[in-house]
Amino acid sequence: VTWRFALEEIEGSVQHQYALELKERIEEISDGNILIDIFPYGSIGTSIQLTDLAREGSVHLAFASPGHLADVIPETGVFTLHYLLSDDETVNRDILASDALVQQFSEPYAEQDLKLLAFVPEGWMVWTANRPLKTPADFEGLAFRTMTSQIAAEAYKAYGATPTPAPFSQVYSDLQLRRIDGQANPVFAIEEMGFYEVQSTMTFARPAQFVTSVVSNKAWFDALPGDQKLWLENALDEVAPLAYNVQAELNASRLETIRQNSNVQIIELTEQQRERFREASLPVRETYARIAGKRGQAILDQLIEMVKEAEPEAPD
Ligand code: 6CS
Question: Which keywords does the record carry (predicted)?
Fold first, then answer.
């Protein structure tokens, strides 16, 4: 049999490396009886179209990023909120991999005919623009591209920007044509999509990790023979730590590539500067709770709790 796996990113990306690792494991453990066919971004559609294909069973596996998915599964919008998770990436990695968290999302995904298999962090969101973005006031009047869900746009509306939702594939040309002024993505994506070629600044404010989810069609997953289900679950567990290392490596090495190939100005915000953004971002949590309801609020509360428990006590 062949499992079709659709990616929201192009070849060489974090999602592509993840898919290759999964493919290798599944093809080996099944003695070549299961093949994984990988469809990198561009071949079959936008993020939301991939989610639709997974819901109807045309693809078996897909990446579905909350920034887009939150209009379909509002609870996932929690990952678009700023300054919610830890500043410590390894704390976030462990929280995102915890069964307790995945469990809480299982019903919202199932209601959309999807099985949530894993959350995958892909690195800090970095802001690109043609000016430094050191205070919320710097966002004033900026047409800032966001992922396509309403809650993803709210995060930047809170800073005074004019959010401009668009699919990933459109971002480069929108920047080039000055239809938008800026956008947010992890470094590896800014490099591989060439956004840095048409922007003059990168601001590191570490507002949030880019988080994605791996999904499958629910009926397909439920009907998998026991051994295949186990292989898939084991392979997902094995790939998680590798994928974390891959994103760390790619985000670091590609920043060097950007530095070498451009004059992009790199701005690292101070803790005080980040604090102003954090304050401005807080009301968006209420908007999220309104959109995502009781179940969404419970997830938000649990995440805050998990971060508090996992972070070492701040010294007095
Ligand atoms: O900005 C986006 O739309 C996309 N960014 C990344 C890093 N992955 C997929 C997502 O669709």
Answer: Signal, Transport
